[in-house]
């Protein structure tokens, strides 16, 4: 005999069933939109569009530009694919049952949607951890990692990430059912575990929370913290080395200048001053670049922490004492926590890519390519029209000639 799960059981409940504790009380009411419904659909639509556009641009840029397919960018491509799947598979199939107060997609889609939702979140999480480790070894221990930091190795890592996510989320697919709500004609896609496996259910839920949140957050904080420390140490060492080198060179040039003619002394002083100025300029540029890297790494850890912490804390609370959270956390609060988790699907392209000059150039080239295709299509249509009109043929040829000159 199966029992409806009232606690946080697996990531599937985190993403969608969090709204269902109040589902029984609202299911018998009118299915129309209220003010909260309009707010939700507006927020979901904005996040969905930003996620699809942002991740789509990243994917298109990396697919078209082979020079940008570095080891790190290959992982970013995988991250964008998983974030895009999270947006496409999670958001529409979360907001529609919320607004209709009815799951209308059937048993097969219930299992498929929930399973791939969980897989996409797992892939995003594991990819973030892999990126943090790859950057740690690339920056802190470059000599040890040089042999295996190749694109072929990154493809193997990505295959392992997807395989791990598919295997880890199998219990979610096995426990999904479409249940009828009371005596109404409405249904919900819920995770149902047998009563004799409730301890296994709780253990799986806690383990999944640790694997997808606690452990990744610890690894990323440790890796990026070590990277930041290493960069600051390197910057301080470079400042000391450049200061000592500049002082030594100036003293040497001053010694030579005392034995030289006034003209040559002036030339030595000018060249020495220019050399020191150039080295200080390069040093300032290096320091600014390293600071940008450290700032970006800090943002990466904070955005993951901010987006997922509220949902995981409340979900863990749900395991410990369901009645208290059922009364204290409102339906709207769960929706906002879900939206905050979904925000992570489009902030990654912003953080990883829009803060990177090469990606910005890649996005511009994608837009230029699109505009050139549109212009080429327009020119072809003009030429076809010109075949039936001498006047139009003259204008089209002149327009083409001017464009080629430009």
Automatic annotation (TrEMBL):
Coiled-coil stretches: none
GO cellular component terms given for this protein: plasma membrane
Similarity comment text for this entry: Belongs to the G-protein coupled receptor 1 family.
Name of the protein this chain belongs to: Gastrin/cholecystokinin type B receptor
Keywords: Cell membrane, Disulfide bond, G-protein coupled receptor, Glycoprotein, Lipoprotein, Membrane, Palmitate, Receptor, Transducer, Transmembrane, Transmembrane helix
PROSITE patterns associated with the record: G_PROTEIN_RECEP_F1_1 (PS00237), G_PROTEIN_RECEP_F1_2 (PS50262)
Localization (cell): Cell membrane
Keyword Lipoprotein part of the UniProt annotation: yes
GO MF, one example: neuropeptide receptor activity
TM region positions: 41-63, 75-95, 115-133, 154-174, 202-224, 293-313, 333-355
PANTHER family: CHOLECYSTOKININ-LIKE RECEPTOR AT 17D1-RELATED, G-PROTEIN COUPLED RECEPTOR
Stored InterPro entries: Cholcskin_rcpt, Gastrin_rcpt, GPCR_Rhodpsn, GPCR_Rhodpsn_7TM
Keyword Cell membrane: yes
Primary location class: membrane
G-protein coupled receptors family 1 profile domain ranges (all copies): 54-352
Bilayer topology annotation: Multi-pass membrane protein
Source taxonomy: Eukaryota, Metazoa, Spiralia, Lophotrochozoa, Mollusca
Organism: Magallana gigas (Pacific oyster)
Function of the molecule: Receptor for gastrin and cholecystokinin. The CCK-B receptors occur throughout the central nervous system where they modulate anxiety, analgesia, arousal, and neuroleptic activity. This receptor mediates its action by association with G proteins that activate a phosphatidylinositol-calcium second messenger system.
